[in-house]
Amino acid sequence: MPLTEPGTLGRLRWLSVTYFDLAIIGSGSGNSLITPYWDDKKVAIIDGGTFGGTCLNVGCIPTKMFVYPAQLASAAKEAAALGVDMVVKDVRWQEVRDRVFGRIDAISDGGRRYRDEELDNVTLYPEYAKFIGPKTLVTASGESIEAERIVIAAGSRAHLPDVPGIDLPQVHTSDTVMRIDQLPERVLVVGGGFIAAEFAAVFSGFDCEVTQINRSAPLLKSEDRIVSERFTAAAAAQWNLKLGWTLSRIEEAGSGVRATIAGADGGEAVVDADIVLVATGRLTNADSLDIQAAGLDLEEDGRLAVDEFQRVLAGGIPAEGIWALGDVSSPYQLKHVANHEARVVTHNLEHPDDLRRSDHRFVPSAVFTRPQIASVGLTEEQARQDAEVSGAQIVTVIQEYGTTAYGWAMEDPTGFVKLIADKATGQLLGAHIMGHEASILIQPLIQAMSFGLDAYTMAHGQYWIHSALTEVVENALLALGTDAPST
Ligand SMILES: Cc1cc2nc3c(=O)[nH]c(=O)nc-3n(C[C@H](O)[C@H](O)[C@H](O)COP(=O)(O)OP(=O)(O)OC[C@H]3O[C@@H](n4cnc5c(N)ncnc54)[C@H](O)[C@@H]3O)c2cc1C
Ligand SMILES: NC(=O)c1ccc[n+]([C@@H]2O[C@H](COP(=O)([O-])OP(=O)(O)OC[C@H]3O[C@@H](n4cnc5c(N)ncnc54)[C@H](O)[C@@H]3O)[C@@H](O)[C@H]2O)c1
C-alpha cells in the first residue's frame, strides 16, 4: 500500500495543516457517515483505493452478481433428476463481467464525484493516509490534516501466503479475479473459507474445472460441524477437493501455471491451472495507519481496539474523538456489521451526550456458495460448552428440506435446518441452514432471536404458508419440542 514517502515528516514542518470538524479514513461504510448534520461543518473523506470500498467494488455486490448467473447455469445439472434435460450452450463471460462492472463502476464514480465536486463542505483526498499525531493525519502526497473527530473505517485486505510465484499474473485474489478477460478452463482455488466457497461455486457453475485445496478439513470450519461436514461432501460432489494440502510454490507453465502443493504427510503433488485464486483470509488495515503516533490500542489479532460505543481505545480508555468501524476493528468482517457500526458511529458523533452501543448479540452470515449456507448464533459445540457452565439443558434438531412438500418438489437431497435451543425457555441459541435460499429462510430465525421470541410461540403463534419452503423452519421449530412459555 503506497503510504507516505520517507522524509515526508521533515518536509511537513513547512506545510500548512488543514483543519476539519470530521475526517473519515475509508470511503466504504465510512462514506455513509456524512449526513445533513455535517452540512455546515468541514468534512474530509480520505481513500487511496477505489471510492466506495470493498463491498461495492470487489466484495459482496459483484460476487453475488456472478453467483446468480452461475446458479442459473448449474441448474441445468440439477434439472435432469426432475425429468428436465437442459443444456447450457454458452457462458458469455465478458458479458457477464461487463454487466457487473457496468453497473458497479458507475456507482463508484458517481459517489466519488458527488463527494468531490457537489458537496461544498466535503473535501475528498484520493490518497492513503496515516497518523502523525493524536488528531493529525498525513496523506501520501504530504497533505497534513487535523480534525476534531476522526473515524477510522479503513477496512481489510486480502492475505497472501509467502510462497514463490505468488506474484505471477495468473495468481489472483478476489480483488482481481472478477475482472479477468476470459473464462478459464481450469481454476485452482486456495483456501477453505467464505471467498473460496463462493468462487469455487461460481467457476464450477460456469463449467470450469475447479480444484480447491485447503490445509485443513472440513471446509468452512467456523460453521456448525454438521454444516462443515455436509458442505464439504456437497463440494466434493461438484469440484475437485484436496484437503490437508498447502500451497508451496507456483510456476508458469505455458499460458497457465503449475502449483506445487505439500501434503500433511510430507508428500508433494502438482495442480495445473489457468488461474489461481488465493482466498486465505483478510487482514485488518490497522497496521497501515501508524496508529502508534496516536497512541491507539490494537487487539491481539491486529484489529483496532474499540469499546461498545465504537470509540477507539488508547491505553485501555477511549481516545477522545477517535472512532472506528467495520473490518479495521470488527471481528466479523461482514458488510451488515460494518453498516450497523456505521449507524452507531453516525449517532454517537451527532449525540455525544447520548451514546449508543453496537449490538453484536446475533450476527448472522450467509455464504453464497452451492448449496447456500446461513447461520446465526451459537454452534452446537459452543452451546454445549456454555451449558456445561450454566447447567442449562440444550435441545437440537435437524430437519431436512426433503421432509417438506417444497423439498419433494425440488427432490432436494442435501438441504437442512439445524436449530439449537434452551430446553427450559425455548429460546433459540443457534440456527444453521444449508440449502436453497438459506440466506432468506434464516431471516425469521434471526428475528426471533433478536426479539426474544421462543420456539414454541414462533411455531404456533402464526400461519406458515403451505407449501412454501418455510415449512422446513416451522417443522424444525415444532420438532424441538419446547413448551409454551409460562405466563
Ligand atoms: C469477495 C468478498 C465478498 C464479500 N461478500 C460479502 C457478503 O456477501 N456479505 C457480507 O456481509 N460481507 C461480505 N464481504 C465482506 C465485506 O465486503 C466487508 O466486511 C465490508 O465491505 C467492510 O467494510 P468497511 O467499510 O469496513 O471497509 P471497506 O469497504 O474495505 O473500506 C475501507 C476503505 O478504506 C480505504 N483505506 C484503507 N486504508 C486506508 C488509508 N490508510 N488511508 C485512506 N484510505 C484507506 C480502502 O481503500 C477502502 O476503500 C465480502 C468481502 C469480500 C472480499
Ligand atoms: N458471504 C459473505 O458474507 C462473505 C463472502 C466473502 C467474504 N466474506 C468475508 O471476508 C472474509 C475473508 O474471506 P476468506 O474466505 O478469505 O477468509 P476466511 O477466514 O473465511 O477463510 C480463510 C481460509 O484460508 C485458509 N488459510 C489461511 N491461511 C492459509 C495459508 N497460509 N495457506 C493455505 N490456507 C490458508 C484458512 O484455513 C481458511 O480456510 C470472511 O471471513 C468473511 O467475513 C464474507
From TrEMBL:
Write out the catalytic residues in the record: H466 (proton acceptor)
Q: Which Cys-Cys disulfides exist here?
A: C55-C60
- Could you tell me which residue ranges the Pyridine nucleotide-disulphide oxidoreductase dimerisation domain spans? 363-476
The name this protein carries in UniProt is Mycothione reductase
Name the Pfam families on file: Pyr_redox_2, Pyr_redox_dim
Where NAD(+) binds, per the record, is at G191, G192, G193, F194, I195, A196, A197, E198, G281
What is the native source organism of this protein? Crystallibacter crystallopoietes
**Record-stated family:** Belongs to the class-I pyridine nucleotide-disulfide oxidoreductase family.
PANTHER family from the UniProt entry: DIHYDROLIPOYL DEHYDROGENASE, DISULFIDE OXIDOREDUCTASE
Q: Which residues bind FAD?
A: K64, D327
Organism ancestry: Bacteria, Bacillati, Actinomycetota, Actinomycetes, Micrococcales
Q: Which UniProt keywords apply?
A: Disulfide bond, FAD, Flavoprotein, NAD, Nucleotide-binding, Oxidoreductase, Redox-active center
Listed cofactors: FAD
Question: What detail does the entry give on cofactor binding?
Answer: Binds 1 FAD per subunit.
Q: Where is the FAD/NAD(P)-binding domain?
A: 20-341
